[in-house]
Structures are given as C-alpha cells and as structure tokens.
Amino acid sequence: LQFVESGGGLVQPGGSLRLSCAASGATLDDYTVGWLRQAPGKEREAVSCISNYDDSADYADSVKDRFTISRDNAKNTVYLQMNSLKADDTAVYYCAVHMYNLCVLIPGQYVHWGQGTQVTVSS
Q: pLDDT at position 28, please?
C-alpha cells in the first residue's frame, strides 16, 4: 500500500484547498484513513480520519467545522477539503492508514505514510 498526496500550495488566510490522497497497491475502502500534519518545530498532529466501516469521521478541535474528509472508492482516493485556512494550518500534510482500522486521532497509530504535501497559509 502506497499513498501519494497532492493539492498543497500557498494560500492566503481565509482561503481553501483540497488535498488528495491517492492509493495504490490496495483497495482504500478496506482501511480507515487519516490525514496528519507536521509543522516545523511541532509534533505530528492527526487532524482527521474516516472509517472504512461506515465512513464516519472525526476531527481535531483545531480543524473542526473548517475541514472535511471524504473518500471516493471508485478513484481509490481520500480527500481533505480545507476551508477558512489560518496561518497555524501551515504544515506538511500526510495521509496514512490506522494500524487497527480505528478512526482515532493518535498519530503514532498510523502507518504507510505518504511523502506529504506542503500547505502554506500566508498573506
């Protein structure tokens, strides 16, 4: 299983981006997938996850009501729609799968990380 993230870039505060996480080597709907991020000098943070059982999702408080995770099984891709972006959202964003297929926001329990995509929020 391998992931390729895309969709990052430079955006002004208040703007939006949609990140994509394309999987190869496995069927993505067999897995609970998470989006995680790491900013310079900060610990990795799990910002969202989507369950493979019922597509239920969870979000970190820092992104709740601004970010939306979704999956398109036909495209074997998971998305992260990010709205109302803030400078604090600046980070490298990664997708990964939970080792036990649980939708929990614990970064150390995610495996098969992609290479990441940079998101920079700045005016």
A: 86
